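Project standup — Tuesday

K.O.: blocked on the structure for the chain from last sprint. Re-posting the sequence here as requested.
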Amino acid sequence: FDVIAQVARDLAYPPSRATRLAVIGIVIGCVMYAGMNTLTALAFTPEQAGEHDWATGAAVTEYIGPIGFVLLVVALVGAVLGGISAFTLAASSLIASLALNRFLPVGLAVTNAKHVLNRAVLVILGVSLIAPWAGREAVNYIVDMSSLLAAIAYAYTCFISVRIGRAVLERVYSAMGLAFSVGFIVLLLWPGSPGQLSGPAMGALAVWAAIGLVVYVRARTHPDAPHIGEALWVAPEETSMAALMKD
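H.V.: unblocked you, prediction finished:
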């Protein structure tokens, strides 16, 4: 669902359709996760579930059999591959947007003959290949840090929607989203909270924030940098190297 906002413009989806698809995706995801948790809870007690490395898989195997387990694995593999594809699609669009706004080298916004952001995809691939060598614990720290960054991004988006929203209901929904986002931020940062970020995760956050500050300051001093708040979007056919460098 998070990718819809990234590709809605390229697919010429109206905002109403993009919103509807995002909500449907969220609802389906919630139902699927709740169903898996409910299935596991019905099959095992908390103590029994703790005895298995993967309680959900064990529950399916015990009550449905090997065929059910195979179907579960196929579904999970499909979900993982779909997630990887969606992440690559969204992240490449994000990198292109940053490049067009001079936060990253402008060459990363170049598309190939099929209008694919191939350079951005290669950057994503290169960074992703580092993760397996970093170890699971290090990746967990990055994931934990990302949860806070996501909450901040959602809070900022909802705040802007409150400011520019025209319909009363739209502003109410945005205000609710802002409240929930701030709540998650508090849970992740409040001392003693069960969800408080660990020391290594906070360290990773500090490093990431420092890198972001350096990139931001450097981009703001670029002679071709757009003004803050100025939306810059270039159609796929205009993102050839010649078009980007013509100025």
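K.O.: great, moving the ticket to review. DSSP finds eleven helices and no strands in the chain. Confidence is low (pLDDT under 50) at residues 229-247.
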